[in-house]
């Protein structure tokens, strides 16, 4: 007897991929045996051909793209670092020490040697109505002549530059006393200081020279620092007026400068003649500052003719007239202490900027011509 036929249709053959199943833990199990499937470099997929047959195709995995930094919509602008400025000239900085020198300013002492190389020059009253110069050197350290004796007010004037090297031929006990109390690096010829020599082509005492490079190498003074001056190539014309000549008096000595539009500088003029240094260079400056100061007799030093030396006070405040670019700006100067610089401000209280290249300061009494 034959067995009854199974009413259910025969089960079709199971495709090969149906033989795999997943466990609860996500492992792939085949034929009752578990096998952990590790991600492969090549992935197998099933492709169905147009004839209905299936075949295995090897496909390389798609690489994960590397995230790229999103560029900023507004990148920060890069401003070039400003170049350092020499506080004594408004130009290039110097690696030299600052050296101050007392220089003769009488007819027998001219033409002065090296005066055209000074960065800042002060014209001040000595005695008997005569003038003498205090020249400040930083950009260049030349040999200068004629070096003369110190004056008591120089210590106060020079200390705004710091404890710099100070060069003079000598001086009376009364004139040297303030210098000796200061922190200036004094180089005095009468005390055997370095760098001095005598020029045989001139008569004493107008023939003393000083090699400033040697002085700086021996005394090791400080480099330039701010002395309160502002510098700018641009002239703020507000509050200024045209002025192509400077005429004033220091003691009994006329002091004058004429503007040269060709050179863009002021020429020093004495008795109508343009002045030159010993090497023939014209004595010029881009700025002339007429600074009105309190000046009084200094009885601790009296010359052979009975004239007392004059002491110029450069600490305090007073009127000032600044000449640059053929124009004049009136204002005030202030200096609060011996180590403070001299600050120049216009009638509106804003700093008066000087044209780069140095300056000549003419220190005059309050009632001097302006």
Detailed description of the structure:
With 370 residues, the protein is mainly beta. Among the domains are: 18-59, no CATH class; 230-364, YerB-like (YerB-like fold, 3-Layer(bba) Sandwich), CATH 3.50.90.10. 6% of the residues lie in helices and 37% in strands. It contains three helices and 28 strands. The chain has helices spanning 153-158, 173-181, 212-219, and strands at residues 20-22, 28-30, 33-35, 43-48, 54-59, 99-104, 120-125, 131-137, 143-144, 165-168, 185-188, 196-198, 208-211, 230-231, 240-242, 245-250, 253-260, 265-270, 273-274, 284-285, 287-292, 294-302, 308-313, 316-324, 327-335, 343-346, 353-354, 359-364. 35% of the residues are buried.
Q: Strand tally, please?
A: 28
CATH fold assignment of one domain: YerB-like fold
CATH C-level class of one domain? Alpha Beta
Helix content: under 10%
Low-confidence stretches: 16-54
| CA gyration radius, whole angstroms | 43 Å
Please count the helical segments: 3
Largest sheet: 11 strands, mixed
CATH superfamily of one domain: YerB-like
Terminal Cα span? 149 Å
How would you classify the helix and strand content by structural class? mainly beta
* Integer average pLDDT: 86
Beta-strand share of residues: 35-45%
- Outline, from the CA principal axes? globular
Tell me what the CATH architecture of one domain is: 3-Layer(bba) Sandwich
């Amino acid at each position: 007897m034959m067995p009854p036929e199974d009413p259910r249709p025969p089960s079709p053959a199971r495709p090969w991929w149906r033989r795999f199943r997943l466990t609860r833990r996500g492992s792939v199990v085949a034929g009752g045996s578990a096998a952990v499937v590790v991600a492969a470099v090549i992935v197998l997929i099933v492709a169905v051909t147009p004839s209905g047959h299936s075949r295995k195709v090897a496909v390389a995995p798609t690489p994960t793209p590397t995230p790229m930094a999103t560029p900023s919509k507004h990148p920060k602008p890069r401003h070039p670092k400003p170049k350092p400025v020499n506080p004594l000239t408004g130009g290039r900085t110097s690696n030299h020490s600052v050296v101050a020198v007392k220089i003769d300013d009488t007819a027998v002492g001219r033409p002065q040697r090296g005066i055209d190389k000074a960065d800042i020059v002060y014209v001040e009253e000595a005695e008997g109505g005569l003038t003498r110069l205090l020249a400040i050197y930083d950009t260049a350290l030349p040999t200068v002549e004629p070096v003369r004796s110190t004056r008591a007010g120089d210590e106060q004037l020079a200390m705004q530059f710091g404890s710099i090297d100070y060069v003079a031929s000598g001086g009376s006990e009364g004139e040297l006393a303030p210098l000796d109390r200061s922190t200036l690096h004094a180089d005095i010829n009468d005390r055997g200081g370095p760098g001095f020599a005598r020029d045989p082509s001139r008569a004493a005492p107008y023939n003393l020279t000083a090699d400033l490079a040697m002085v700086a190498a021996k005394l090791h003074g400080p480099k330039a620092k701010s002395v309160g001056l502002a510098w700018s190539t641009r002239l703020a014309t507000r509050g200024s007026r045209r002025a192509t000549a400077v005429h004033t008096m220091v003691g009994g000595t006329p002091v004058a400068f004429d503007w040269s539009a060709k050179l863009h500088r002021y020429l020093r003029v004495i008795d109508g003649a343009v002045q030159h240094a010993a090497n023939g260079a014209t004595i010029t400056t881009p700025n002339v500052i007429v600074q009105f100061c309190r000046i009084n007799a200094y009885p601790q030093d009296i010359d052979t003719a009975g004239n007392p030396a004059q002491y110029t006070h450069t600490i305090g405040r007073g009127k000032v007239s600044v000449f640059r670019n053929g124009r004049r700006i009136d204002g005030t100067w202030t200096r609060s202490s011996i180590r403070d610089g001299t600050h120049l401000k216009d009638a509106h209280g804003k700093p008066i900027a000087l044209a780069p290249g140095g300056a000549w300061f003419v220190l005059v009494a309050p009632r001097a011509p302006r």
